[in-house]
């Protein structure tokens, strides 16, 4: 671990890693589990829609507690609620498909509570010089977990009869969540902020405000993320009918992502963000191309490897630049919770829009070719994100 990251940064990385591990073990196969019960793209889409809606609203509502009270309680409560979600899935079994909306809301609330607290603490333990490095390590951890978690889950599910494997991995996720809660008690209690301004996220659109570029750029980023978060894994399973292949897909793509995040986090300096994000956006759009000819395990693997290789070029600049805006001056630092809420609400709008477009268009034309053309259209939105945010790269902010 680089000496540029202090002890609290490393501990926060560890807690994040455990939360992501629990999600990788079970979340990777959650939509596959639902698909095996009911083969309905719209149902999976509404499940994702409910999660995204709840996550964004939780950011906004819980922002008051996180700013004025204890951030660590929100972080731990997010882990607890996520654990309760998997308990309910274990209890409901095949009837989970009958409770898509309430379960989706519960999952979104747990994610929102955790990621709001995590993002605020992440901002507080990093600065403009270490933010890209921290994001790089987040990517590396996510990649390592992506290598081991889904592959292990896929092997367990394939080795056991019926849905026993799913029950095992859901239970293991509960244990990992518990370890994450215990580890979080070593994170220092953070300083409380001033009064929470409910409408502040909506006031950041002054004439010369940089958020006029950052907000629509974040929304454009969310359009792709909302649909691809559930669709890619599902396509791999539909093409192969084997959970083992899903785990193998994740292993290979995460291995590539591990190297890519390490390299980009290490060498992509602030002055290269403009070109780096553009190149990344073009390439992650271009790698969707092979799917237009055929959707099989080989073309999906080509798409997955290409995305993993080039995604960090696009992702790290857009994340770091928005967080640099939060550290622009003393006033924005004081409003960091509200501004993080603004960022998440922006991404939520994009996710909801992308998912809703997918559901409406696929319902109108329920064919696999429709799915692929939607992937190409929605997958090109990183180019729009770059167009909207590029001015921030030409005039980078100085951190307070």
UniProtKB/TrEMBL annotation:
Keyword Nucleus: no
Xref: Gene3D superfamilies: MFS general substrate transporter like domains
Broad class of where this protein is predominantly found: membrane
Alphabetical list of InterPro entries matching this protein: MFS, MFS_trans_sf, Sugar_transport-like
Membrane topology listed for this record: Multi-pass membrane protein
Any coiled-coil regions, as ranges: none
Cytoplasm among keywords: no
Record keywords: Membrane, Transmembrane, Transmembrane helix
Localization: Cell membrane
Pfam families found in the cross-reference section: MFS_1
Transmembrane segments: 12-35, 41-61, 73-93, 99-122, 134-158, 164-187, 272-293, 299-326, 347-365, 371-389
Name recorded for this polypeptide: MFS transporter
Originating organism: Paenibacillus vini
């Amino acid at each position: 671990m680089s000496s540029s990251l202090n002890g609290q940064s490393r501990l926060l990385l560890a807690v994040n890693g455990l939360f992501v591990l629990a999600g990788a073990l079970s979340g990777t196969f959650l939509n596959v589990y639902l698909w095996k019960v009911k083969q309905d793209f719209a149902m999976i889409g509404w499940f994702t829609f409910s999660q995204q809606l709840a996550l964004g609203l939780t950011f906004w509502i819980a922002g008051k507690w996180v700013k004025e009270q204890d951030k660590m309680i929100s972080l731990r409560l997010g882990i607890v609620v996520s654990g309760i979600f998997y308990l309910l899935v274990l209890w409901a079994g095949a009837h989970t498909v009958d409770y898509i909306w309430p379960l989706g809301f519960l999952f979104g609330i747990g994610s929102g509570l955790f990621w709001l607290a995590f993002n605020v603490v992440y901002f507080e333990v990093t600065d403009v010089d270490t933010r890209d490095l921290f994001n790089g390590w987040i990517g590396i951890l996510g990649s390592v977990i992506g290598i081991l978690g889904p592959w292990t889950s896929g092997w367990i599910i394939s080795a056991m009869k019926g849905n026993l494997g799913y029950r095992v991995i859901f239970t293991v996720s509960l244990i990992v969540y518990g370890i994450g809660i215990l580890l979080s008690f070593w994170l220092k209690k953070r300083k409380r902020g001033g009064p929470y301004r409910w409408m502040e996220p909506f006031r950041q659109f002054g004439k010369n405000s940089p958020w006029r570029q950052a907000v629509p750029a974040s929304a454009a980023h969310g359009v792709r993320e909302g649909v691809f978060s559930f669709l890619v894994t599902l396509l791999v399973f539909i093409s192969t009918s084997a959970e083992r292949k899903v785990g193998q897909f994740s292993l290979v793509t995460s291995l590539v992502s591990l190297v890519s995040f390490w390299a980009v986090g290490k060498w992509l300096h602030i002055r290269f963000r403009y070109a780096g994000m553009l190149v990344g956006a073009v390439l992650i759009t271009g790698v969707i191309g092979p799917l237009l000819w055929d959707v099989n395990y080989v073309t999906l693997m080509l798409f997955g490897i290409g995305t993993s290789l080039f995604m960090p070029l696009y992702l790290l600049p857009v994340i770091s630049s928005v967080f640099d805006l939060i550290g622009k001056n003393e006033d924005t630092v004081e409003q960091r919770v509200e501004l993080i809420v603004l960022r998440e609400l922006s991404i939520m709008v994009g996710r909801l829009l992308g998912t809703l477009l997918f559901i409406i268009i696929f319902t109108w034309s329920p064919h696999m070719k429709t799915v692929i053309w939607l992937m190409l259209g929605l997958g090109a939105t990183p180019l729009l994100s770059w167009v909207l945010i590029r001015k921030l790269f030409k005039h980078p902010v100085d951190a307070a």
